[in-house]
Design a protein that fits this description.
This protein has 2 domains: about 40 residues; about 400 residues, no CATH class. It has 23 helices and no strands.
Length: about 450
């Protein structure tokens, strides 16, 4: 490996350690490596342009915009009431409301932070009055937030498809079963441990007293939530029915959400719409810079055969498929402890593609494995963006969230990751069923 590439890698890791913005870390590391290897800097401009010259980036922008609008459109209130009507009587069911509401919000936002931002202010104060520890409710919502990465439409899935050149529809479907397994696992663990995080209620919950009243409440809350639930239905039917492309579906999601928030729920006004647009532009700008400069860095590493060297190094230890997948998971989980999900996708995916080609892993399954890993990184200390945001919104200490979140991670998150990694059916059955084996390939 050339000296310039070694310096570039060293600068990259030093930049991460001292906390510099990642887009500038990518840019500086690439420039240093190019200068020290006597290569033209024009490589950066052309590579960055081609990386962001993609229609998939337009779809990402639309889905982020739709997700931001949903946070202020009154949708979370309706979904919470509907979830409460379904599971309010189950032991720990009031906390399960948060998990189910997160599942619904995931299908609407395509990301993790909008789920937290919308649900914590609504649920934490209310459930605390009903006898649940404030830190525990927040921990459950933060742990569940990465369902937004798994339930389509998913922004990380779109970025994986952009980097790995895979079918958006197939990768969307590949993470559905892992997402449902995670939600079910969280609810089961909550049922087992919730008694350790309860205290006498200040205000008893008002639940329907008869079967007829329960059915009536489920029907009423479901009817109120129907416009909100219509958004993922419209998007997914449009994509999988061949009616529209993913970026057209994203545009439809924006228009649909605006109509629901302004004319049906009437909770969205011009100011909240403008705030959502501003937030979207900032987020999209960050993603664009990361994608452009990150692609420059990874393409440079690939051109200098770093990816192939990594492949030869790992294969030199063992050519066993399961061992290599285990190493890959460990690498991704360690990255996730310190780096946000989008940079991981941009850095790691191009470098490991030669490796997975050697061990014959289906690239749709690989997408599911990586997205589950990236999602776990969102909830894995020490650098877990969901914990930082959740502790701020709920006004609880970071350390108070860590213990319950680690319980959910070890009992549910890691087992689901292992199932996704070593049981291809988990990620490939649904895409094969919907799209056919020709689209997915052999598995």
């Amino acid at each position: 490996m050339e000296f310039g590439i070694i310096v570039g890698l060293a600068l990259f890791f030093v930049g991460i350690i001292i906390g510099l913005p990642l887009c500038w870390v990518f840019l500086g590391s690439s420039a240093a490596a190019l200068l020290l290897t006597d290569q033209p800097l024009s490589f950066m401009a052309g590579t960055a342009y081609h990386a962001i010259d993609s229609y998939v980036l337009m779809a990402i922008a639309f889905f982020i915009f739709a997700g931001n609008m949903m946070s202020v459109a009154g949708i979370a209130d309706r979904l919470t009431r509907f979830a409460y009507a379904i599971v309010g009587r189950i032991r720990g069911g009031l906390v399960d409301v948060g998990i189910i509401a997160t599942l619904f919000m995931s299908a609407l936002t395509g990301s993790s932070l909008p789920c937290i931002a919308a649900l914590i202010p609504i649920l934490v104060p209310r459930l605390e009055k009903l006898g649940y520890a404030r830190s525990y409710i927040t921990a459950v919502l933060c742990s569940s937030s990465f369902l937004g990465y798994l339930i389509p439409p998913s922004v990380p899935a779109l970025i994986y498809c952009l980097v790995a050149q895979q079918s958006v529809a197939a990768v969307f479907l590949s993470t559905v079963l892992p997402g449902l397994l995670l939600a079910g696992g969280y609810m089961l663990v909550n049922t087992l441990i919730v008694k350790n995080y309860t205290h006498p209620a200040e205000d008893a919950p008002e639940l329907p007293q008869t079967f007829k009243e329960t059915v009536k409440e489920i029907g009423a809350s479901g009817w109120a939530a129907l416009p909100a639930l219509g958004c993922p239905a419209v998007v997914l039917v449009g994509i999988y029915g061949g009616i529209c492309t993913p970026n057209e579906a994203g545009a439809i999601a924006v228009v649909y959400t605006a109509i629901v928030g302004v004319f049906m729920y009437r909770d969205m006004n011009a100011q909240s719409l403008w705030t959502s647009a501003q937030t979207t532009l900032v987020t999209l700008g960050m993603i664009t810079l990361l994608l452009g400069f990150g692609t420059v860095f990874t393409r440079l590493l690939i051109r200098e055969a770093v990816g192939q060297a990594m492949t030869d190094f790992v294969i030199g230890f063992s050519q066993n498929k399961y061992f290599v997948l285990a190493l890959m998971n460990i690498l991704l989980l360690v990255f996730g402890m310190f780096i946000d999900g989008i940079p991981i996708l941009i850095i790691v995916v191009p470098l490991i593609l030669p490796l997975v080609a050697k061990i014959d892993v289906n690239l749709i399954q690989l997408g599911a494995i990586i997205i589950v890993n990236v999602g776990l990184g969102v909830v894995t200390p020490p650098y877990a963006i969901s914990i930082f945001v959740g502790s701020h919104l709920a006004q609880v200490r970071y350390i108070d969230l860590v213990k319950p979140m680690v319980i959910f991670l070890l009992l549910v998150g890691i087992p689901v990751l292992l199932l996704t990694t070593y049981v291809p059916t988990i990620s490939l059955w649904l895409p094969t069923l919907v799209l056919g084996p020709k689209i997915i390939g052999a598995w």
